[in-house]
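Re: that backbone. Tokens:
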């Protein structure tokens, strides 16, 4: 019996074979080869980020964040000079002129950071970095005295309280020679940025006459205050404000002689391998809600005007975080000091460090 061939069915079968064959081959050719996630390396101070923001950025942009911490501007500067390959760093405003002059920072492409428009006007054109060419404000705050009133037995008002014999060995001061000597200069009635050699020598003599009074510590003074190992510390306002959430006996003051105001910034090292990703992160941090998440977590002042509606209402009226106009009139920015005078500051502090260490170990 002759075999009848249905041409239409044969044609359909042929087309199906062709399609299946092409699809199989195409699927093989188009299967993507897994590639590792890009990594963004961030170098920041301790206790100075809302961890959720790191997770949110990783999720939103499919990247991995390598997050590391430093405890002083000097440590950050040494690492950058040694060629560290971080993409985002968080220096203080006082370090910016030096970093710019030494070519350590990459110039920002503002087209990649449209959220710059969210900055409050007073942070949009700072003297340490005109027109924000190399940096974007991260947080701002003050430096003063934190203490536990249950252990001091009285309120504190002055830098001189650090040297009350009743508190000997129970006072911690940050290992920062400009800040520490500046506090002594204020106590003596001088500018904290004095360039006067006689005044600096007087401040050094004052320190040397109180060898057993102070303990020099890194950027962890708040931990010693919280644990009860110290009763008084010279610290950043936000670090103390974080403790005040849990302990009503902890206080923070700007001494009557004056204190410090500062701005920390986000900047990109010149040798960053991921400048575009770093600018994306900076723009992410300038988002109104992200900026508020940061400040609500770490309790420092936000330079982001658009974040105001999302900030904790209690923080906005907290004088520790947002000082009154009267207190602000007593605040000083740390000035960039010429190399010769800065070396004198460093020498005085190093002599005190060595002598106080010997005295405390006896």
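Recovered sequence:
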């Amino acid at each position: 019996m002759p075999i009848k061939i249905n041409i239409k069915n044969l044609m359909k079968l042929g087309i199906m074979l062709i399609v299946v064959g092409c699809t199989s081959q195409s699927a093989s050719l188009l299967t993507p080869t897994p590639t590792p996630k890009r990594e963004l390396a961030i170098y920041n101070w301790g206790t100075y980020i809302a961890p959720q923001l790191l997770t949110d950025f990783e999720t939103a942009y499919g990247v991995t964040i390598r997050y590391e911490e430093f405890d002083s501007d000097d440590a950050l500067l040494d690492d950058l000079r040694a060629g560290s390959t971080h993409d985002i760093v968080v220096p203080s405003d006082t370090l910016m002129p030096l970093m710019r002059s030494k070519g350590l920072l990459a110039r920002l492409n503002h087209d990649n950071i449209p959220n710059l428009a969210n900055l409050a006007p007073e942070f949009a054109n700072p003297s340490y970095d005109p027109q924000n060419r190399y940096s974007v404000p991260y947080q701002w705050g003050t430096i003063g005295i934190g203490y536990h009133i249950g252990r001091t037995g009285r309120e504190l008002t002055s830098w001189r309280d650090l040297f009350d014999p009743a508190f000997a060995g129970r006072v911690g001061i940050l290992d920062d020679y400009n800040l520490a000597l500046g506090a002594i200069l204020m106590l003596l009635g001088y500018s904290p940025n004095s360039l006067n050699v006689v005044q600096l020598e007087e401040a050094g003599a004052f320190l040397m006459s109180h060898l057993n009074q102070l303990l020099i510590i890194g950027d962890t003074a708040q931990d010693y205050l919280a644990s009860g190992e110290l009763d008084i510390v010279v610290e950043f306002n936000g670090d103390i404000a974080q403790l005040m959430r849990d302990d009503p006996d902890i206080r923070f003051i700007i001494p009557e002689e004056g204190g410090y105001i500062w701005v920390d910034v986000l900047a990109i090292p010149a040798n960053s391998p991921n400048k575009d990703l770093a600018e994306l992160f900076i723009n992410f941090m300038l988002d109104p809600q992200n900026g508020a998440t940061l400040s609500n977590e770490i309790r420092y002042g936000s330079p982001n005007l658009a974040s105001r509606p999302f900030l904790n209402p209690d923080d906005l009226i907290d004088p520790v975080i947002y000082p009154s106009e009267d207190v602000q009139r007593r605040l000083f920015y740390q000035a960039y000091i010429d190399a010769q005078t800065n070396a004198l500051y460093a020498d005085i502090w190093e002599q005190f460090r060595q002598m106080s260490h010997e005295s405390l170990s006896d």
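Residues 113 and 282 are 7 Å apart (CA to CA). Strands lie at 39-45, 64-70, 88-89, 135-148, 171-174, 214-217, 232-236, 250-253, 259-267, 331-332.
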